[in-house]
Amino acid sequence: MLPNLSALFIFAFAAGLSGPGLATGDGDYTKAQLALFATPHLANITEPVTLTYDFRRSAAKGEGGFEDLVKMTVTEVESDGRRNLSFEYLSGERRRPFADIEGFRGNPLIMLFLQQDVEEMKQATGGASVYFRNRIRHAFSNGAEVGESTVELGGETLGATRVIIRPFSKDSKLDSFPQLTEKWYEFVLAPEVPGGLYRIRTVVPSAAGGAPLIENRLTFAGR
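RESULT FIELD:
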């Protein structure tokens, strides 16, 4: 069964933005909300193309780690600047059957990645999806760290924006899963990268330091 798209877009809509494509003004939105959900990331895509991203999951002791691909195809560029899109999100038994979407200006992989993340936390903890979604949405408007950064692509150094959130910091409701309280999320956006998104990463640190317990990383690989 295909996921309900309204569930995917809830990350943007609950932030008060005007729609899936682009907010009409900056209002009282935070820098993180504007960078992630109110920026036309797909503006540099002017013709149909498939963008490929590496997906890598690493886990302590190598349990459950894998490497795979995510592909987003811009199937149509509309005259008003919106894009129609289809997805190949992972493969085989890991495949996520996300439905095609129409009329987007931002990069919806941000929301698809978050939807996958919420589903994984629900399965691991038995917690409610809406709880995890609410904590993530709240983090975009409260305490998000936003700063300038750079990325290396094709031998060039490109300017980027880096957003960090820690949705579950000091969250007593996760006492049974204390490792999640230190989980952090990184979003790296670069306007010169096709599709505007360079990397998304989630990290569950190890209490003892060293390699993370779990790290998921989606990185732009090319077109």
